[in-house]
Amino acid sequence: MKTSINQNITAYIGLGSNLAAPVIQIKSARNAIAAIAGIKELAFSSLYQSLPMGPQDQPDYVNAVMCVATGLSPTDLLRGLQNIEQAQGRIRRGDRWGARTLDLDLLIYSTQLIELPELTVPHSGITERSFVLYPLYEIAPQLIIPGKGNIADLIANCPLAGLKRLD
């Protein structure tokens, strides 16, 4: 008999890639996330092209946001995301904002504010990053980001900064 896993937590995951066929990396990561036991995909944004945040001598990024229902704890979900990054060739060198095959960030976990050494939720840069806010707004225009406010208000104060929706 199959036991059901409680999937009553809504979480939002940011996906980004700028190496090794970024669009394919994002689509593959979407499938891998949805395949994790205890996760059900609820929504997935369009793909967006964005300028790199750090060093500008790297390719543009492809970004998206995924909404999932889950019964996993935030740290178990984070571990699952890190396993997918590693499986898709992510090498953590400690270089902040460098080029990467895949970057998966747990952006929001229900209404929780989480401050752990390995995890901060909502994601620390969520309010300043157009490549997160615009795809997030696309799939959840009524969202209240815990401790940050209404996404519509945040979008109003976040310039596109070169962000382009891919068709």
Q: How would you summarize what this structure contains?
A:
The protein has 167 residues and is an alpha+beta fold. The protein contains four helices and ten strands; from the N terminus they run βαβββαβββαββαβ.
How many domain modules?
1
Number of strands: 10
Structural class: alpha+beta
User: How would you spell out the order of helices and strands?
Assistant: EHEEEHEEEHEEHE
Specify the helix fraction band: 25-40%
Query: What gyration radius follows from the Cα positions, in whole Å?
Result: 15 Å
Q: Beta-strand level of the residues, as a percent range?
A: 25-35%
- Report the major sheet: 6 strands, antiparallel
CATH level 1 class label: Alpha Beta
Distance between the termini: 43 Å
Task: Describe the SSE topology.
Elements: E1 9-17, H1 22-34, E2 39-44, E3 48-50, E4 61-70, H2 74-87, E5 103-109, E6 114-116, E7 119-121, H3 130-139, E8 144-145, E9 149-150, H4 151-156, E10 164-165
Antiparallel strand pairs: 1-4, 1-5, 2-4, 3-4, 3-10, 6-7, 8-9
